[in-house]
């Protein structure tokens, strides 16, 4: 099926899904905005199958900013592992975002609260545009996505720490629009420590899991633990072991956090950190 009509909506995810749902084979996404890149991996992942895969060509700085969000990056990693998404960076001179399927070249335009996909489907034009960006993609630089796939995070958290901690982790993520470490929200390390504290997990265990799965180093977990402890969000208690220094058990350190349900945990933590 070919896309033969312009698509208009108020939501990037809706417009992008409408375009991709009619595509097969390799689709090129060129010069995406942050909203488009985020919608691609969070709203359209089910559309990308063995029959449809995306080759995304972006400015490197934009892709870094988008992938600083753990929610976006971990979903992108899932698609990369499934060979449904390939990320590359290079000089992109195109002023608009383009989606190029085998049958159409769609210019994505976002203005105020409206999003439009403007379709050009003349076969020779589409073939020319597609050939040009296929060549540009081949000469572009592969983007090193270091965030683990969300399925790996969830499965290892359940097997190595426990199902309840994994469930709490999922609940927190579903309440967040972003998970960044830039002061605008909770990042993946903070979330991991909070749900670990909610379940009285040892710092050693959660930090080892986090390092093994690829979220962050043990040192980062330890540093973040100290920051949360100084902010009064978590407490620790020493747990003696047979050999070596006692290990630290994480506990929630504020009454509001201790009484919060898992889907309230992020909101309460953010309000206490504000």
Automatic annotation (TrEMBL):
Where is each Transcriptional regulator TbsP N-terminal domain found?
5-148
InterPro entries referenced in this protein's UniProt entry, alphabetically: TbsP-like_N, TbsP_C
Superkingdom classification of source: Archaea
- Every copy of the Transcriptional regulator TbsP-like C-terminal domain together lies at 149-270
Instruction: Report the leader peptide range.
Output: none
* Protein's name in the database: Transcriptional regulator
């Amino acid at each position: 099926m070919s896309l033969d009509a312009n698509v208009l909506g108020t939501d990037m995810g809706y417009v992008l899904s409408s375009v991709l749902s009619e595509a097969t084979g390799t689709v090129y996404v060129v010069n995406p905005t942050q909203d488009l890149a985020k919608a691609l991996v969070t709203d359209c992942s089910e559309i990308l199958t063995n029959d449809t895969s995306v080759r995304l060509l972006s400015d490197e700085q934009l892709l870094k900013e988008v992938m600083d969000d753990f929610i976006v990056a971990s979903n992108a990693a899932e698609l990369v592992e499934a060979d449904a998404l390939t990320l590359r960076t290079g000089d992109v001179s195109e002023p608009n975002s383009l989606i190029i399927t085998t049958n159409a070249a769609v210019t994505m335009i976002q203005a105020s609260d409206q999003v439009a996909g403007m379709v050009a489907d003349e076969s020779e034009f589409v073939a020319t545009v597609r050939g040009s960006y296929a060549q540009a993609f081949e000469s572009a630089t592969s983007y090193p996505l270091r965030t683990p796939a969300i399925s790996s995070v969830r499965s290892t958290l359940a097997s190595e720490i426990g199902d309840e901690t994994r469930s709490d982790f999922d609940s927190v993520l579903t309440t967040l629009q972003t998970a960044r470490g830039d002061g605008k929200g909770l990042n993946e390390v903070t979330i991991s420590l909070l749900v670990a504290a909610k379940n009285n997990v040892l710092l050693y265990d959660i930090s080892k899991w986090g390092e093994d799965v690829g979220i962050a180093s043990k040192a980062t977990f330890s540093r973040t633990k100290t920051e949360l402890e100084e902010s009064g969000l978590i407490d620790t208690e020493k747990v003696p072991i047979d050999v070596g220094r006692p290990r630290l058990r994480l506990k929630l350190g504020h009454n509001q956090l201790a009484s919060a349900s898992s889907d309230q945990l992020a909101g309460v933590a953010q309000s206490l950190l504000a």
